[in-house]
Amino acid sequence: MADDFILDTDALTRRMDGAIASLRTEFASLRTGRASASMLEPVMVDAYGSMTPINQVGTVNVPEPRMVTINVWDKGLVGKVEKAIRESGLGINPQLNGTIIMLPIPELNEERRRDLTKVAGNYAEHARVSIRNIRRDGMDQIKKAKADGLSEDDQKFWEAEVQELTDAYIKKVDAALETKQEEIMQV
């Protein structure tokens, strides 16, 4: 039975790709001195009794390089959207103009750039932890197969495959982090 064991490396790869995609989404939310609608993606608003993404309560526009506007559809949510932005940690001070919230993007000073590189480092570390957890799941499957009679040579082969896959994805995370940190520190 265990001689037929084949680890589903495609499933592990798919899950690790998901961790990388999640990291890229988090990196997109970090501002680098230029306005971007994606920087508001992680901001959630308490709307109608549930946490809702900001782009589902209003229209997000980038009319100029240093300005993001949100045209809130429901007047009653303007205050909640403003509060969510203030508490998001983006370091942006929203300005109200009726149902339109304007977000002027200030120049990043050296201290804020360093803070943002630390945040990027935290995001990357979360991605590494996710990848290591996926690795652990793969190793657990191999150990279970070993208990079911998988040969020691096959066990070592599959463990090496999982470790090789893990190392490749950790390198991808490190490369993405280095690129993002250079982008943030660029004046």
From TrEMBL:
InterPro entries: Ribosome_recyc_fac, Ribosome_recyc_fac_dom, RRF_sf. The keyword Hydrolase does not apply. Its main location: cytoplasm. Keywords: Cytoplasm, Protein biosynthesis. It is found in: Cytoplasm. It comes from the Bacteria. Residues 23-185 form the Ribosome recycling factor domain. Belongs to the RRF family. PANTHER family: MITOCHONDRIAL RIBOSOME RECYCLING FACTOR PSEUDO 1, RIBOSOME RECYCLING FACTOR. Responsible for the release of ribosomes from messenger RNA at the termination of protein biosynthesis. May increase the efficiency of translation by recycling ribosomes from one round of translation to another. This is Ribosome-recycling factor.
